[in-house]
Amino acid sequence: MYETINSPFKLGNVTLKNRIIFAPTSMGLKEEEYLEKLGAIARGGTAMIIIGDVPVLKSPFLSLYSRKGFLRYRRITETIHKNGALAAAQLHMSDSQFRSLIKYLPGMITGKIKPDEMRVLLNDTVSGYITGLTDKRIAEITQGFGKAAVLAKDAGFDVIQIHGDRMCGSFSSSIYNQRTDRYGGSAENRARFACEAVAAVRKTLPDMTIDYKLAVRQEDPHYGNAGVLKEELPVFVPLLEQAGVNSFHVTLANHSDLSDTIPPASHPYFHGQGCFLPFCDEVSRLTDLPVCGVGRLCSPDFVEEQLKSGRIQLAAMSRQLIADPEWVKKTSSGAGSRIFTCTGCNRECLGGMQAHKGVHCIRDRIKTANESLCHERKVLP
Fold it and tell me: Rounded to 10 degrees, what is the CA torsion of 89, 115, 190, 231?
């Protein structure tokens, strides 16, 4: 049962023990709790864990370039490896001009500016920032992808994923990219930044497996502002393949409401299982490279069907593996009926992220409350 889910898969120069990947997720947890959660997901059978938002350049936040940051990433890869999974670094370059937002810091600190409002303010800076970057700065950033990839490999990462949504996605977008030089205008020009980032990694690490998070924007109805229009995929996919990618991780473009890219069960459009898989269908028609699907993948029966049919070759999950880290182990042991299925409520995962309380599952809160109640009953006279 679930033979395809649990079958090995060759991805570039690495072999995944099964077809399930933990999608990049900003957990917002203290280090020990974060490592504990990653370890649990790895022990639960997941083949590979993607660590999101690894900075491409030196950063005031933890990055691969500082000793403290490098050692933190090494602890992450060691935790993942000793619990049986591979580790991927999602190389990330912000497309927000934070200097222009300093005036909003007091409002953030006092809570007068809510996370969703701050997100809108950040997105409002993107077009001007992308359009105004000099060629010299662009070259520093794209070459930085190669330098960061080398450091990531040294820190123990097995695979590199290029974050095709933030700066790569904004250069790709006709909404944000208003340049009139070789990086703007046509779809071919707007693909140039992302292709140069991929090529920089391929040049520095010829044998490294490179995955590309391909962010797709759609109209009618409109969702996403960065990324690639579905109609532009025939331009972008071959160019990225020529630049050196080994696979595509396909999802909805960002820079809109988080509840679109992390859709709840009540979402007006992306409410069903496999809600982003139609984007995978578009990409698969254009390449023979493996395609990883994502978007409310919960049911083992549904995931097995998508993999077995060849619609996707890999399945990425975040909320489902946070809800039940042993999802994979249960499918391989015949205990699929005991899986705790993500309900898509978004209360403690996305809600926890937005409230700066860290990503958890409502299941954990219920369990903690029940344990506390049982303890109180035991100690009552």
Answer: 100
Contact predicate 154/82, CB 8 Å: no
- Three-state DSSP state, 345: coil
Average pLDDT, the chain: 90
Domain ranges of the chain: 9-337
Which tokens is 1 given?
């049962």
**Rounded to 5 degrees, what are φ and ψ at 84?**
100, 10
What digits encode the pLDDT tens for the residues 135-156? 999 999 999 999 999 999 999 9
The fold of the 9-337 domain, in CATH, is TIM Barrel (3.20.20)
Mean pLDDT of 340-361: 83
Q: Is residue 110 classed exposed, middle or buried when 0-12, 13-18 and 19+ CB atoms within 10 A define those classes?
A: exposed
Residue 107 has which token pair?
A: 């409002």
CB–CB of 228/215 below 8 Å? Answer: yes
Q: Full-prediction pTM beyond 0.85?
A: yes
Q: Which residues are marked as active site?
A: 166
Which tokens in the block code for residue 144? 């930085």
- How far, CA to CA in Å, does 230 sit from each of 214, 218, 219, 334? 11, 6, 9, 39
